[in-house]
Structure formats: C-alpha cells, structure tokens
Amino acid sequence: MTATATDTAIDPRPARILVVDDERSMRELLAIVLRREGYDVLLAENGRAAIEALERERVDILISDIKMPDLSGVEVLRAAKRIDQNILGIMITAFASTETAVEAMRLGACDYLSKPFDVDLLKMKVREKIENRQLRQENVLLKRTLGLTHQFANIIGRSETMLDMFKMIETVARTNSTILLTGESGTGKGLVAQAIHFHSLRRDRPLVAVNCGAMPETLLESELFGHMRGSFTGADANKKGLIEVADRGTVFLDEIGEMSAVMQVKLLRVLQERKFRRVGGLEEMQADIRVIAATNQDLAKAVADGRFREDLFYRINVIPIALPPLRERREDIPLLADHFLAKYSEQMGKHVTGITHDALQLMLRYDWPGNIRELENTIERAVALEATPSVLPDSLPPTIRGNGARGAAAQPVDALPDSGFDLEAHVKEIERGYISEALQRAGGVQVKAAELLGMSFRSFRYYVKKYNLR
Predict the structure, then answer these.
(1) Model confidence pTM above 0.70
(2) Inter-axis angle of helices 457-466 and 119-145, to 10 degrees?
(3) How far from chain centre, in Å, is Cα 364?
(4) 16-124: CATH, from 3.40.190.10, 3.40.50.300, 3.40.50.2300, 3.40.50.11740
(5) Contacts of 408 (CB under 8 A, 6+ apart)
(6) 160-323 has which fold?
(7) Looking at the domain 327-401, which fold is it?
(8) Which fold has domain 424-466?
(9) Which residues pair with 207 in a beta bridge?
(10) Ranges in the chain annotated CATH 1.10.8.60
(11) CB distance 45 to 31 below 8 Å
(12) Which of 215, 109, 147, 110 lies closest to 4, judged by CA?
C-alpha cells in the first residue's frame, strides 16, 4: 500500500538516538552496539552538549545517564520534551530501586535501566519503542489508504484478521445485503456496524440501533414498528418506530439472539416482504431499510436447540462477519492501548503519554475475556490512577498485574541451602529450561511456544537468541 499524506508518512530514515553519559567508555560501547543495529547514533558527554544537539538535530530516542556533573539526565529529558514532545526517553541509573523507577517515569521517561545492564535488553527495549511508534504510524496510513476516515477512527488494528475485516467492510458496505456480525462481547460489533453504514450508499440517511435483549417484547415491538394512539395503556399519541425513522437508512439489531419467538416472526416478515404495521395500526408501511444484526451467541446452535428460527437465521446470515477476540490478535493491543491512552489523557487533562515496558508485557500476556471494552476500561482506570507520565504496572488491575493470563497460584520454592547459591545463574538455568521445553512441545514453532509460556512473540524470540536455542 502507498499513501500520499505527507503529515503521517513513515520516515524511511533510520531512527536517530542520542546517547548522553559522562563516562567515555559507556558512550563508546552504546554507540558500537546501537550502530550495529542500524541506528543513527549521536553522542554527548554532558547535559549541556546534549541539549545543544537536541536543538540542532532530529532525535527519536534519548538514552541518558541520570547522574551527571553539570545537568542531570532528568533535566536533559525535560529540555528534550520542550523541544519535541514525541522524543522517547530511556534513563540509565546506577541506583536500582522502585523509587528511582517511579521518579524517572514521573519526569517523562518511557523506560529505565539500572547499571550494570544487559546490552541485549537495551537493544530489545529500543527496538520495541521504535516498533510501537511505527505501528501507530502504519495504522494511520492504513486507515487513510482504505479510505477509513472518521467512521473508522475507533476500529484499530494491523493484524491479518483485522486487515481482512477492513477489506470485507469495503466490499460489502455498498451493497444492500443483510449482514450478521458475530463475536464475543466487547469485540466492537457496534463500531463495525457504524463503519458499514457510513461507507454505504445509505450513509446520508439515519443509522438507528436497538438492543434486542435490553427491553421486554411489547416495548421492543413498539420501538421497532411504532404504535397508534390508544393501542395500549400509555400510548397517548401516534409514534414512529425505528424502522420508519431509519427510512432508506440502516437498522442495527444488537443481540438479536435475545429476541423472543413472537418478535422473530414479525422481524422475518419485515425482511421477507419489506412491509410492517404499527402496533394497533391497519396501514401497511414500506420498510426501505438495510439490516445489520449482531450477536455474541452461536445462532446455529440456537437453531438446533429450537431457540432461534431457522428461516430467520438464513435471512440475517446473508453476509456473516466474525470479529476476533482480542486474545487472538495480541499484536493490536499496543495500538489499542495507545489510542485509549490518548483519549482518556485528554478527557482527564492528564499528561500520561506512554506505557512502560513491564506494564505492556502484563497486558500482552493477559487473555482479555472482556475484549476491547475491558482494555478500554483498564486504560481509563490506569490514566485516572497514574501519577507519572507513563503507565506503571501498579496502575493496572490486580487480575492483570498479579497473575497475567493464566491466574496460576504461586509455586512453592525449595529451601535455601545453608551455604547459599548463585540466584541469578539459577534463575537463568530455569528460564532456559522452560524456553527449551516449550520449543520442543511446540515442534520448534516459536509463536506456539511463546503462547505456552504466556509471552509475547517478540520477548520469546529475544530469549531464544539470548540462550542460543534453536
């Protein structure tokens, strides 16, 4: 795909990183490591030199030691944010503590490392920050290329299943065929219905939505078909139903699987004959509408169980579109989280602009039974609670923070030997063993092995390389 919009075009140049450290050996080491990764690296020996470089050059990531003789890394980061709010900051400190981490995040860093640090871990963090930025840019370009403007603003994704769905929407939107959206609660069926309507030939006419499971049968009938004055107690005047209101537009029937047997018969008539009557009325009225139905139920099973009419099922299942649960498109979680972060930061007037690596990893491992709706609520909660510019793990709900996707209880540990032992080496050996076993069980397929361990593919690939496993 290509895009002509210059304001959102992805910069083809390699990412530029400014390394600030008063230790020459550290500067040179980082320069060698990062240049080997293909980055354009600038060096500064102190805070003042760093600020001068920031004023002269475009910089994507600032990697700075916190403690320096003239200006601290925090002061350099403040200056960088004044120059360009989009600069990402990774702080390096020799004092590893929770307080240090929180302070670094509060002052605008998107991550931090404590000395001495694993160079491979630094490379992974830098790569993740750059990839996340590129994902956001690609998502904007994707939506522009497909013509997805305002109506697609909240449908976010670059996973293969989502790209297929975008293409499907483009294909079916301009037809008049009835569409059935299926998927778990919280997967965004309402947003997809909006997208289909706004890209259809009926977009200049109303889109009306009704939740079929949220009201009793008699009220639903009146809502859909309207009623005549005196047709029932409280009917003090004639009232148009949503089908009349949506004339030449679209009716979105959410949770259609909850519709009663009587209402199923009446809806079937509308779909077959395109005619209806108001409650208490005699006049036959035309129903020039397009119907989009949605359900989180297995309607084929409901038909087999006798809970849903087979003829109605075939009438609404002309073009089925299945929305994937969030756990099946985890690569979209950073994009969605970033979108909701911007939304609620603006709403609450808070300067929360990023999500830390640890918090994002917890979110990537979690299974999200409530799907996108649960993710949105999680980010809203995090923004409300967060006192730093980046979301920390402590701002996530306990279900995500404590046990991730599996919710397993903590395992007992062996007694500590009297003579002690090398904990770091022991942990690495255990880590290597689990990675190796997962690879064997998955037949060498790293994506499956990563799922077995509740890890993102990117993190799993890092550890495979770290331990030289194949």
Answers:
(1) no
(2) 150
(3) 10
(4) 3.40.50.2300
(5) none
(6) Rossmann fold (3.40.50)
(7) Helicase, Ruva Protein; domain 3 (1.10.8)
(8) Arc Repressor Mutant, subunit A (1.10.10)
(9) 250
(10) 327-401
(11) no
(12) 147
Tell me the C-alpha distance between 89 and 431, whole Å.
29
User: Which residues of the chain are in CATH 3.40.50.300 domains?
Assistant: 160-323
- In order of 360, 363, 434, the CA distances from 401 in angstroms are 10, 8, 22
How far, in Å, CA of 110 to CA of 454, rounded?
A: 24
What's the angle, vertex CA 463, arms to CA 468 and CA 434, rounded to 5? 90
Buried b (16+ CB within 10 A) or exposed e, 151-179: bbebbbbbbeebeebbebbeebbeeeebb
Segment (H or E) for 438: helix 423-441
Q: Which residue's entry shows tokens 């959102």?
A: 8
Separation between Cα atoms, residue 178 and residue 356, nearest integer Å? 44
Are 436 and 404 in contact, with CB atoms under 8 Å apart?
no
Helices and strands per DSSP (H, E), number in the chain: 19, 16
* Ranges in the chain annotated CATH 1.10.10: 424-466
Burial class (CB in 10 A: 0-12, 13-18, 19+), 213: middle
What is the separation of C-alpha 35 from the centre of its chain, rounded to a whole number of angstroms? 32
Q: Give, for all 470 residues of the chain, the pLDDT tens digit.
A: 223 333 344 455 788 999 999 989 899 999 999 999 889 999 999 999 999 999 888 888 999 988 888 888 888 888 888 887 778 888 887 765 556 556 666 666 677 787 778 888 888 888 888 877 666 555 544 444 444 443 444 588 888 888 888 889 889 999 999 999 999 999 999 999 999 998 899 988 999 999 998 888 888 999 999 999 888 888 788 888 899 989 999 999 999 999 999 999 999 999 999 999 999 988 889 889 999 999 999 999 999 999 999 999 999 999 999 999 999 999 999 989 998 999 999 999 988 888 988 899 999 999 999 999 999 999 999 999 998 888 999 899 988 986 444 433 444 455 667 677 777 777 778 888 888 888 888 888 887 888 788 776 767 777 888 888 86
Question: Which of the 8 DSSP states describes residue 402?
Answer: T
